[in-house]
Structure formats: structure tokens, C-alpha cells
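Progress report, Aim 2. The chain analyzed during this reporting quarter is listed below.
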Amino acid sequence: MKKVVAAILFAAVFARAETFDPKKAPFEVLFEQSLRAGDSPEHIAMLGAAYDELMARGPESLSNLMDRIHIENVMIGVYAITLTKDRPLPKEQALPVLMSFVNAERPATRKMAAFLAGFYRAPEYAENIYPLLDHEKTKGAAIRALGKWQVTNAIPRIDSFLHDAKERVRVATANALRDIGDAHAIPSLIGALDDPMYTVRNTAARALVSLGKASVEPLVSALGQAADDAKKRQIIRALGDLKDERALDALKKMRDGGDYEMRQDVSNAIALIGGTSTNVWFGAGGE
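Predicted C-alpha cells for the chain:
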């Protein structure tokens, strides 16, 4: 019924383009018009005015978008991201709206509410997000938000997801622990260097590097205990990236061991610590 009403409203407005007043139009009409392709300068201007008005309504538009976020229309999500990331609403306007949807009936709505909330720094809302960790369809977005908010107290709640069955959840967890930036996550991240998937191992190693000098001695200790070559190579590369002389002795002992690729990794790590080379393993950034 709502779709029928919206279509009728849109047709009426479209027919009276020259008198269209976006400030009086309902959300459905503004949304539909903002997506249309204009066929004249006047029409294009009218459609642009519809988009501008939709954005100007800020929290009201965000709430309307969240009410419809489960619908298979990619532009609903694009506009929601625009309001929270690209043309961000102030935190005090956006977060109350998003938190009102974290308990919504549909998992897709709860997931998107947590995802959008992650664009803000809002650790005071952590308690609203924790319940989403208990559900398969929402835990990834919850992990991401808690990481972006740097909720240190969340580490015991989320580091267990480094053992999740899904690779993308394990990657999201390593990224979240990196974002939180607390040394208490180091043992769990070192454990993730055993992961069967390179994406997880690499993300965990990058997180350890981002934690800086606190990672050096635990990594050196782990290097001496590692039985798996893939894990050894991740540790060697991370130690090189950290450029800390405390790792030199352990690395030099490995120069003549392992296969050619491992010996090359050791050589490169030693060179990095000596300041004679540049990092060839980890790119900047990443989520």
C-alpha cells in the first residue's frame, strides 16, 4: 500500500515539476526523485533539490532509510552511508537514531545499524552493541564497531572470534584488535599466525606490527617455539617490520636454516632492522 501511495505522489509531483517544493514533499517522493535521470536543466535542478532536501533532513532521513534498509535497493544503503560517513551527521544526531535500530526485528537492520555506528567514535554505546555478538548475521558488524570505537574492555569478548569458522569474521576480529590497539590482544594475535588462511595470518601480523614495541619480545619468543614454517615466516616478517634490535639475535640464528624463501625473509628482516631496506610486506591501512 505504501508503495502505491508513493507512486501516486511521485507521479503528481513529476507532472508539476515547475511547482515542486522539496521542503513539502514526503520522504518517499524525495528518495524516488533523487534517483531519477533528468531530461532538461529544469528537471535536473528539481531532482538535485530533492536530493539536497533529503540530505538536509539529516536524522529524519536516516531514520527513514533505516526503516527500509532491509529492502533490496542498494541506494538506500548508499544514502545511509552518505549521511554517516561521506556527509556525516553530528554524532549526537546520528547515534541515537542508529541505536534505536540495534534491537530491530530484522537481522539486516541490526547489522547495518552497527556498521554505520562504526563510522563514529562512540564507546559509550558499547553495551548496546555487545548483544549483537551473539548472532551469526550481526557479529561481524558488532566486532567492527567495537574495534573502531577502541573499546578495550571488548577484547575478552571478541578475541575468541579469531577461531570462528568463517574467514571473514576472523579477519574482522584481527582488524578490530588492531584498531583497539591494546597489548592485551598480543597472545591471541600471535595464536592467529597459525591460521590456515593467509588473509587471517597477514591481518594478525599487521595488527601485531601496529601494536609496536610491545609485540617484539612475545614475537621473538613465539619464533623460537613455532613449528610451522608459515607461522615462522609471518613472525620473521613482522619482526623486520618492527625494526627493533631486540630481534636481531634470534633472526641471525636462522640465517642458515629453512628453505630459500625463509632465508630470504630472514635476510630482509635483518636488513630492515639495520635500516638498509624498506618494508615489502605490509601495505598501509586496510579493514
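Residues 41-56 form the longest helix (16 residues). DSSP finds 17 helices and no strands in the chain. These observations will guide the mutagenesis work planned for the next reporting period.
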